[in-house]
Amino acid sequence: MDNDIRFIKGEGGLARPLPGKDHYSGIAYYAEEGTTAPAGWNYGEPQQVFSLPDMAAKGINAETSGFAVLHYHVKAFFSINPGASLWIVLQDMPESGQPDYAEIDDLMNEKADIRQIGVYIPMAFASTMVGSLQAKAESMEAAHKPIQIVLQPTWHTISIGVLDDLRLLTSPKVAVCIAQDSTDEVIELMGSDTSPGALGTALGIISLAAVNECIGWVGRFDITGANGAWDIPALGDGTLIKTLTDTEIDTLNAKGYLVVTKRIGLSGSWFYDSPTCIVATSDYAYIENNRTIDKAIRGMYAYMLPEVNSPARVSGDGKLAPDYVKYMESVASKALVQMERNGELSAFYISINPDQDVLSTSKLEVTVVLVPVGVNRKIEITIGFGLSI
To answer: Do 235 and 172 fall into the same domain?
Structure first.
């Protein structure tokens, strides 16, 4: 009946934790030099944040001096992936130069399962930042904690023609964000030494995507949201994307930057692509390449670790016993079987050469080949008229 009380049930308010750990994310946030840490926080000590209200309850909101940009990024992160897990570590900038990024160690020591880390630094971009972060990622990988890093520096005036070409670097574990929204909230956050950028949005989409998925997937990852968020994307210096030519946007992507753009014929905004800081022909030229192999490495490590110092059975001729080879190949394949089942791998191959001399070397060599899932970066359609079909 018309004269009544109606209830409309909402969805997503509980932000139930997501399955798996691919969404485990971290933020290393650097405040201006001399900024006092908020009450309840200590520099260099990570805390888990479960939602934007939870962070407010822990002492950081939009009015917290020196940390309004962090609040903005956390809001963007959870608006995209409410059930994701997020850990945050704070630090202020050193007196001179860039930090040593020890806060990444702090995050990974707190939660070794973190898969991707966003780094916000109120400092103009320099390519040396990328190399430093790559070195940090390599040290994490050596410790069996592989991660992908997204860097959000400060952008002032962006001249596309003279921007550093990130594809000339050798840092596949790092992606650099040059995108920024143009809402009133973002404009208010901008200052002489600050441009908020899109770190929270990028980290949120990465945490939401399956490891094999490009964050620029038009059919799935539209980033527009409430209150006009991302209706009019821009660059970090405030330049609106709609004022750029297609060639300029293509150049930003070709140079390896994370940029947000519009698409003709659809309402929304998307990351143009998912480049990392290495030549485009590399096996690790995109975020999804690195996330896929990182997941394979983590999974294989977990299953193979119990086999360290285990007996390696051999036949009378000193070769590895056939049943032992078959057993070890099955152990090594467990994580990859699940990834293939999930659609994160197209196929894989594992081989253990039975002729290797484990008796002398005490080393078992395993060869693994992964066939990834492809990405349709370009679709070419041949079309024309004909007299008949």
So the answer is: yes
